[in-house]
Design a protein that fits this description.
phage-related protein like fold, 314 residues, 7 helices, 5-stranded mixed β-sheet, single chain, alpha/beta
C-alpha cells in the first residue's frame, strides 16, 4: 500500500474539504455592529421647532395682518383725513401622520440577543431615524398633494421671495459669489425696511466647498468665505445637504442648488411638530411581535416671509 504524502493547502483555500484547517477557523468577527452611514437630517438642527400643539390638531393656520395708511398735515375743518387700512390673510398647512413599524419573530428576538445583536433595542432606533428622515423631506419639500407647506414650496405658497444667481458658482468670475451673498443679506434688510437682518445662510456642501477654498481675488489669499465673514461677522454660513439641487425641489421652479438667508427665530419661522415620536404597545400574533411608531408633523410655519430670501441657480 502506498501512502501519498500530505499536500499542504494555502490559507486562501479555507473552504477546501482537504485542508488541515476548518472553514472560517481563522476568521475574527468584530464585537461591535457597524451600521451603514446615512446622511443626517438637518431641519431640527437648523430651524426652531414648536411642539405646543394638541396632538389632535388636523390643520395649523396662522394669520398675517398688513397695515397701510399714513398721517398727514391737515387744516382746520379738513374733511380729507387719511384712514388706516388693515388687510388680513390666513395661511394653513395640513398635519400629516408619519408611521413605521418593526416586526420580528420570537425566535429572531431570542437568537439575536444570544448572538450579541439586540433587535429589541436596534428596532426603536431604526424606526426613529426613519420617521425623522421622512419629517426632514416633508419639512424642506412639502407635499402639494396633502397641502403641507415646505421650505421649498415656492413663493406663491410661502411668500418667501427668490432671486436668480448670475450662473452656477463653480464657473463664477472673481467677486461674483461674494457680491451675490452680500446682496442676499442686504436685500432682506432693504425689503423689510431695515426691520430684519439674516443671521444665517444655508447652502449646499458643494457651494460651501467653493467659497471655503476659492480665493476672493487673485490679489489676496483670503477665501470668499473668509472675506464674507470679515465683512458680515454676525452671519453664520452652514453647509446643508438638502440644498443640493434645491431649486428643482418642491415648488421652487428653478434649477441647480439654492442659498437661503434667514434668522432662526421662532417669531419668524419654525417647524410645527404636532406630536413627538411615540412607540405604541407591541402586539403579538402567531409568534410574531409587531411594534408601531408614529409622529405628527405640520410642516413649516413662515410668519415673516420678508425676513428671509432665496438665491437660486447656484
Amino acid at each position: 500500500m502506498t501512502i501519498s504524502a500530505f499536500q499542504y493547502k494555502t490559507l486562501d483555500c479555507l473552504d477546501e474539504a482537504d485542508n488541515v484547517l476548518f472553514s472560517r477557523q481563522l476568521e475574527t468577527i468584530l464585537p461591535d455592529l457597524i451600521t451603514e452611514d446615512i446622511a443626517p437630517t438637518s431641519v431640527r438642527a437648523m430651524f426652531p421647532v414648536n411642539t405646543a400643539f394638541s396632538p389632535n390638531t388636523k390643520t395649523v393656520t396662522w394669520r398675517m395682518l398688513t397695515i397701510t395708511g399714513a398721517a398727514k398735515i391737515i387744516a382746520d375743518y379738513a374733511d380729507d383725513i387719511p384712514l388706516i387700512n388693515m388687510f388680513g390673510e390666513e395661511k394653513s398647512t395640513k398635519v400629516q401622520t408619519l408611521a413605521v413599524g418593526t416586526e420580528f419573530s420570537v425566535d429572531e428576538l431570542s437568537a439575536s440577543a444570544e448572538g450579541g445583536i439586540s433587535l429589541a433595542s436596534e428596532g426603536p432606533v431604526a424606526a426613529r431615524d426613519s420617521i425623522l428622515r421622512k419629517e426632514n423631506v416633508l419639512a424642506y419639500e412639502g407635499d402639494h398633494k396633502f397641502d403641507q407647506v415646505g421650505l421649498f414650496s415656492g413663493t406663491a405658497t410661502t411668500g418667501i421671495s427668490q432671486t436668480a444667481a448670475n450662473g452656477v458658482w463653480s464657473a463664477a468670475a472673481d467677486g461674483v459669489i461674494y457680491t451675490e451673498m452680500a446682496s442676499l443679506v442686504g436685500d432682506v434688510h432693504t425689503d423689510s425696511k431695515t426691520i430684519h437682518s439674516p443671521s444665517r445662510i444655508l447652502m449646499s456642501p458643494a457651494n460651501f466647498q467653493i467659497i471655503s477654498t476659492t480665493q476672493f481675488s487673485a490679489a489676496t489669499d483670503t477665501t470668499i468665505l473668509g472675506f464674507f465673514r470679515a465683512n458680515h461677522p454676525g452671519v453664520d454660513v452652514q453647509a446643508v445637504q438638502e440644498f443640493s439641487g434645491a431649486g428643482a425641489k418642491g415648488g421652487m421652479g428653478a434649477a441647480n442648488d439654492a442659498v437661503f438667508a434667514y434668522n432662526p427665530n421662532p417669531s419668524e419661522i419654525f417647524l410645527a411638530v404636532i406630536m413627538a415620536i411615540e412607540q405604541r404597545a407591541p402586539t403579538e400574533l402567531r409568534l410574531k411581535i409587531e411594534t408601531i411608531y408614529r409622529s405628527k408633523v405640520g410642516g413649516f410655519i413662515i410668519r415673516k416671509p420678508l425676513a428671509m430670501k432665496f438665491l437660486t441657480g447656484t
